[in-house]
Design brief:
Low-confidence stretches: none
CATH architecture of the largest domain: Orthogonal Bundle
CATH superfamily of the largest domain: Alpha-helical ferredoxin
Mean pLDDT: 93
Distance between the termini: 55 Å
Helix content: 40-55%
Shape: globular
CATH topology of the largest domain: Fumarate Reductase Iron-sulfur Protein, Chain B, domain 2
Bound molecules: iron/sulfur cluster, FE2/S2 (inorganic) cluster
Radius of gyration: 25 Å
Length: 335
Amino acid sequence: MEVRFKIIRQQTGKTPKAQTYILDIEPGNTILDCLNRIKWDLDGTLSFRKNCRNTICGSCAMRINGRSSLACKENVGNEISQGFATKNPDGVPEITVAPLGNFPVIKDLIVDMSSFWDNLESVAPYVSTAGRKIPEREFLQTPAERSQLDQTGNCIMCGACYSECNAREVNSKFVGPHALAKAYRMIADSRDNDTQNRLERYNDTESGVWGCTRCYYCNEVCPMGVDPMDQITKIKQEILAKKDASSSRTIRHRKVMIDLVKKGGWIDERKFALRVVGHNGRDLKGLLGIAPLGLRMLTKGKFPLTFEPSQGTQQVGKLITRVQNVEEKVHLETK
Ligand code: SF4
Ligand code: SF4
Ligand code: FES
């Protein structure tokens, strides 16, 4: 079958340009097979990374029809049957291949991954040195302890999650989903004894777990099922279990929201602002900061002067209590 490949090509600092190539291929061919065919038979100047051809090394991550994935994993037939490829009037399906997002392009489909590696390094992705000091014999783990590392250990550092991360796009301090998934791997590792310091380090509004906007894209694109956002959520739960509401506005935000919903079925916005931003009168600067907004809402009749609990508040409260009990149990079991 004939398929048109639209490749977004670029030189450093230059405007990207689309170049098209038509190949006669089998539906089972992977996108990497097709790129190889283009390079070997049609245009030797096309640049891209590859190595294992078998979804192991993570080298061939790129954007295929708008979503970040591995070129050696996705195949042409699937791109067409799932409706990802563009249908053209001439009947030749078109597959668009572009470099990963959130990375500067070096050439064509090759990106500069320096920030990706630097951010990984910033979470201290090694079992703590203190934890390794077992002089007489190797450090054994039970099968149950080792199984805690299975999911995060599958990461092949391909960068697909980083490419799609909305938080990275707007906040250059955010370390990225790959780094935080690795951070959780360290927290879950029974050999590591630096959990307390790690939680302090990851408990940062911009660079750490609270920088994540919970868009779920990292979970959606990860080719290895690492589910980085779920790992970020687990770190958040560890932090929330150890910190009280006075420790930061971010922590208060989570705790107060749950508390208010538990008591009223939904959020009493007056109390929410006072308790989270105003810290119950202890943060005067915070209160003064939101006063103009409060006044504007008041004059436009949008400030809620009263609060009515929602219907079914008791059931909502019971449900939250049950979830909290389950979370507590899971938390204790994984310790
Ligand atoms: S978490 Fe998944 S998407 Fe992100 S680098 Fe690892 S394997 Fe790739
Ligand atoms: S869920 Fe968080 S870490 Fe994952 S892509 Fe979205 S913002 Fe980034
Ligand atoms: S070439 Fe190794 S993951 Fe694709």
